[in-house]
Design a protein that fits this description.
By secondary structure, this protein is an alpha+beta fold. Helix content is 17%, strand content 11%. The strands form 7 sheets. It has a 4-stranded mixed beta sheet with strand order 15-14-11-16. A 3-stranded antiparallel beta sheet has the order 1-4-17, with helices on one face. The protein has a two-stranded antiparallel ribbon with strand order 2-3. The chain is globular and about 80 Å long.
Length: 522
């Protein structure tokens, strides 16, 4: 018997040759082909198209990028007021965008101009519903009629934060802003022809709606989308048929919706904890949006200056004449005070701000500690008998659902019986400690509801003012003492109410990895 001895180098070379031979026989499509099937992608001859050149989500107008992370939500200092609705919980927030400043009178004035041009003639109630309540400035024992008449529209106040808006009005503004920003993007990218989006040219009320466009592009503008398409987006095939290219969701052209920030997002952005970060830990805690225990600056350049607009003491809203504390006795322009370390203005004073959440006293970190938010109401577009999505028209339009939007309905419980992550469409009162949140909720008997604030005067005895319309607002205002400058403090009122000290700013979700090495370009 002959034994053949092979050297180790020879064996290694044989194995390399075998691997190379196998690779030559593998099915590969080459460059520009699918990793899944080997078929060509983005071919000029058609087929599957992928957004291979997508460079990431840019910041929308007015927005600042906030990199997400973990933080302690709620009260982290001495609880002098003995509040128990902001007990500290550890939460994680995904990266997002938020407005650099509160929405100003000028910004809201643009909204009112557009609403009047589009809806005032045929849908006057929609326009009227957008108007802020200017009577919030009245006080039975104060003279403020000049504010009632001038604060919203006079140029002296155009850079001041808008007030007198309800939670629903703030939500409606965010929806409008989404549509106008995305509409301009479609013009810039050549999907809609120039001049087609001028408000005065839209006289039937069927304005552009982002959600309708993404789900059914041809239904946009009340079904007139194809008439407004630019020549660049049109293509004629060999049979002479005209085909229109749309900015579908797969292209990544349009931005996500502007919306109110969640309470968790707002608080995280206001704290700007990266200012006290050292490597992978936070060095201490923060009571205010700036680093320090006091409301005055400790920096040499502006030593002793107040860092926010708030009520200094009883009868003192801005210091004495000749030695002003920068405050003006009411609101100030939105950039009057230094920004926090994220570059955000007015996160401590000036006006308090609406956030998206429904109010409940307890933040249930055991139920969720990731992007915490109470207020989810899941809706589905309504599909007609012809199998097409139904668009809101003049008959079913309302102050919060405008012509051109998709008609939607809350998801039905019977359609969710096989789901494991949620079981009802309306989750505003989910797991909030009331009768519906306990195991014996089906038992018969006379049980007191925990949250039974009335929607009308029905004469019943009430145990609380908390209900599913109670909305959270955050931050201090020109009317508040320093205690409420702490981002961890939380208050609530019904979302239908308006005041002269609550405004708002918008936020936008960031689509992509939560942690990135560079901030998106502004």
């Amino acid at each position: 018997m002959i034994t053949l001895k092979l050297s180790k180098p020879l064996i290694f070379m044989f194995m390399i040759s075998l691997i190379i031979g196998c690779n030559k026989n593998s099915v590969k499509g080459g460059k520009g082909s699918s990793q899944a099937t080997g078929w060509k992608i983005n071919s000029k001859d058609g087929g599957f198209q992928s957004a291979a050149k997508y460079k990431g989500q840019p910041a929308g107008p007015g927005l600042i990028f906030i990199e997400g992370g973990t933080y302690t939500k709620g009260n982290v200092k001495d609880n002098v007021m003995r509040d128990w609705n902001n007990s500290p919980t550890q939460q994680y927030v995904r990266s997002f965008f938020i407005d650099e400043t509160e929405v100003t009178n000028e910004m809201y004035g643009e909204y009112l101009y557009w609403m009047k041009a589009v809806f005032a003639e045929n849908f006057s109630e929609i326009y009227k519903a957008a108007l802020p309540d200017t009577l919030v400035w009245r006080n039975p024992l104060g003279f403020n009629e000049d504010m009632v008449l001038n604060y919203l529209r006079h140029p002296a106040f155009q850079q001041h934060p808008v007030v007198g808006v309800s939670w629903q009005q703030a939500v409606n503004f965010a929806k409008w802003r989404t549509d106008r920003v995305n509409e301009q993007i479609l013009v810039n990218e050549g999907y809609i022809r120039e001049g087609a989006i001028i408000p005065d040219s839209i006289n039937d009320g069927y304005a552009f709606n982002s959600k309708a466009y993404l789900l059914d592009p041809s239904s946009a503008y009340g079904g007139k989308m194809n008439q407004l398409a630019s020549d660049k987006s049109k293509e004629t095939n060999d049979d002479g048929e005209e085909k229109i290219e749309y900015a579908t969701r797969e292209k990544g052209v349009l931005l996500p919706e502007y919306r109110l920030p969640t309470e968790t997002e707002w608080e995280y952005a206001a704290l700007a904890l990266r200012e006290i970060r050292q490597e992978n830990i936070y060095r201490g805690k923060k009571k205010f949006p700036w680093d320090g225990e006091y409301t005055r600056s400790g920096k040499k350049k502006n030593l002793g200056d107040q860092l926010a607009n708030f009520k200094l003491a009883d009868g003192d809203y801005g210091g004495i004449a000749g030695w002003s504390e920068v405050g003006s006795g009411i609101t100030t322009s939105v950039r009057s005070y230094p920004p926090n370390d994220f570059g955000l203005y007015g996160m401590a004073g000036n006006v308090a701000e609406w956030v998206a959440d429904v109010y409940r006293p307890i933040i249930d970190e055991e139920a969720n500690d990731f992007n915490y938010y109470r207020g989810n109401v899941y809706r589905n577009p309504v599909i007609g008998e012809d199998g097409k999505l139904i668009t809101v028209d003049a008959e079913n339009a309302s102050y919060d659902v405008q012509p051109g939007a998709l008609l939607e309905e809350v998801q039905k419980t019977e359609d969710l019986k096989d789901r494991v992550n949620y079981s009802t469409g309306d989750n505003r009162n989910f797991n909030d400690g009331d009768r519906n949140s306990v195991r014996d909720f089906t038992l018969e008997g006379d049980f007191k509801r925990m949250y039974n604030s009335p929607t009308g005067d029905d004469g019943e005895e009430r145990t609380t003012l908390i209900d599913d319309q109670a909305r959270v607002y955050k931050g201090g205002s020109w009317l508040d003492r320093a205690y409420y400058l702490d981002p961890g403090q939380r208050r609530y009122i019904p979302g239908t109410m308006t005041t002269n000290y609550i405004g708002f700013r918008c936020a936008m979700s960031y689509l992509g990895e939560s942690r990135i090495s560079e901030k998106p370009k502004r």
